[in-house]
Design goal:
CATH topology of the largest domain: TIM Barrel
Strand order of the largest sheet: 12-13-16-17-18-19-20-24
Oligomer: single chain
Largest sheet: 8 strands, parallel, barrel
Helix content: 10-25%
Number of helices: 16
Number of domains: 4
Strand content: 25-35%
Radius of gyration: 29 Å
Structural class: alpha/beta
CATH class of the largest domain: Alpha Beta
Number of strands: 39
Amino acid sequence: MRLRSILMLALCTATALSGQDLQQLADNLNVKSPSAGSRRLALPKIKGAGIRLLGADYEQIIDSKGRISKPLCDTPVRLSFEVSKNGESVISRDYEITVKGAAGSSQAGANPKPQIIPELLNWSGGKGMFELPREITVCGQEPFIPELIRELNALLPEGYTATRTHKPKGATILFARYKGTDDERYGMGIASGGVTISAPGSTGLYWGSRTLLQMLAQNPTALPNGMAWDAPRYKLRGFMLDVARLPVPLDYIKNVIRLMAWYKMNDLQLHLNDNFIFHEHYVDAGEDPFRKSYAAFRLQSNMKGADGTPLTAQDLSYTKQEFRKLVDFARAYGVTLVPEIDAPGHALSLTRVRPDLIYQGPMPHHAKRRCEMLDAANPETLTYISQVWDEYLQGSNPAFGNCPVVHVGSDEFFGDAEDYRSFADGMLAHIQKRGHTPRIWGSLHRKQGKTPVRSRGVQMNLWSCDWAKAWDSVNQGYDVINTYDRALYVVPFARYYRADKNQPWLYANWMPNEFGNETLPAGHPRLLGGTFAVWNDEIDRLHKGYGAADLWSTISSMVSVLSQRMWGQPAAPRSYEEHLALAARVSRIPYCNPLHLGSESFSIEPGLTPMHLKRGSRGPEYHLTMELLMPEAPVPGEEQVLLDSDQGQLLAAGRDGRISLRRNDSIEFAFNATLPVGRKVKLELIGKMGSTELLIDGVSAGIPENVRFPLRKEGRMTTFILPLEWLGSSFNGRIFRLEVK
């Protein structure tokens, strides 16, 4: 069999080659690992054919020109090649080689590789431990140093403090730069003299600080001596959060950013406008979805319709100043924030401002969803959406000014293909004209046509094999991102798209270069990386009452799993169960507490109210007990607030007189109960993840109703973070006792 293969290879080389023959040659190259002293990769050779290196998955080790940067330890690298002959070219399969490391073999008794997420690429263990002094000094010029010192002081045990010094000699932790071009690569040395983190750029130094903090989270007083050399396999490692259909407060997004940075994820896409998808629920009930379906545009906007309809969502929105600060906050944590304004589909908030621009062309599929489709055939639509974008791209200090990449949406438009292509190309051109890199949802396989859609300098999310093909997209010139729906989509609490239920498989098997039945070379220069996506489809008539707090466990576990898959080697470094145990050990992220967890119990007899408790918020597991008296029935329409914080309010009487819970995401729940008047009452609120129970003198008030979306009866969720900043801010009565366990 071997002789036959050799003869076939020789025959193919000696005669004119078909495409299939050339592919066979490309997939049977003689690719050798470089010798220890090699500084450049030796390309394989085929007589009469041209071969060039297409790319390597660790381009920090072998760059596009084949130059070798020696890693610390022997490291597997995957390569692919372009093979050309007789005017025809093909791309080879991946070849794995080993690049020899600079460090020798580990000493007997050397420290094992520290366990962090994602796994260190290289580690050469020394012997012994570096015992941290009680007064730790940090030296470096990087802008993140003050925040790092704050984080260190949050992690260090009592009696240890971290401060800044400008004297490198004798510093406990030293940050230093060296010449180089890769902004994310870094090295770390730990010895008796302290810790040195070095990198070509600020981002690499920052990632090194995350590694250090994860090590200290497991042992806050000592570090293993040794050397680390670390770099990501893929340059883009991200997450898309749909904040359009689920109101998500800014403080929660900041916690998401801290979480991503902790695991070295660097791309957060915020889906800023969308609507209830299933308009047919209204159409089939004889109602008009244009008026009834939930829709939101989360940014402050000056734009209004002719009838005064505002573009900005009225329940929760972000001002331009808030969003600009959020972008800068993300940058400080090594995260690029990518704002998305979706059009011409998913655009009900935009069509409500311009109903004259609802699409009028043929819609053979999903005709009941026409109300959310902008008229991609009308040049005025492109002008309109360009004006929307310019509100955030132009001006003296634009909201998106520090966003190098912005997303134009453009998914699931059910109208004519040529209309779509013309609109998409126009939007991409407009964004590039404004000096930003555009990103778009892949749709050109479904929307094939003659109208050209630009690709140069354009990023594309490959999300569905039906809508866009991986090989077609890279051959057309797009820089692609793996957001494959069947592997990476989460629709919380739905019966479909539940990547969060498939995390053991993701951790062990998912590959960023696999798109359904298509596989790109791992180091293809147009493959940027991957993102998972959380889509909040279950709203409006399907609303279960869940809020951002209910998503935290899903988001945090998905980030930890996929950070490993996109930073580290293809083979998982440990079992999924071991990964979960490690994630639990390193999960204490400084100043990241979206659930407002706290173990302190307290009891007070408040006396006069209002009273500033200064205890922030607590949740979601708590047991509140209050003894209080409401002397008179509340005035209809007049609210009375018992507890208040930036996370929400507990109301003794809502607008309709019922005891209510109001969250800071604008969702309000009302119990089918009013506070008894004229007598002392014991009121208990028992919070758990997913539910909140009210007892009045020991009797349950039942499951509260979602005031805004009251239709959902089964599976209703009522998670409520307990507000404990102010007591009795507008309560017309007496509070005798307050206890929180």
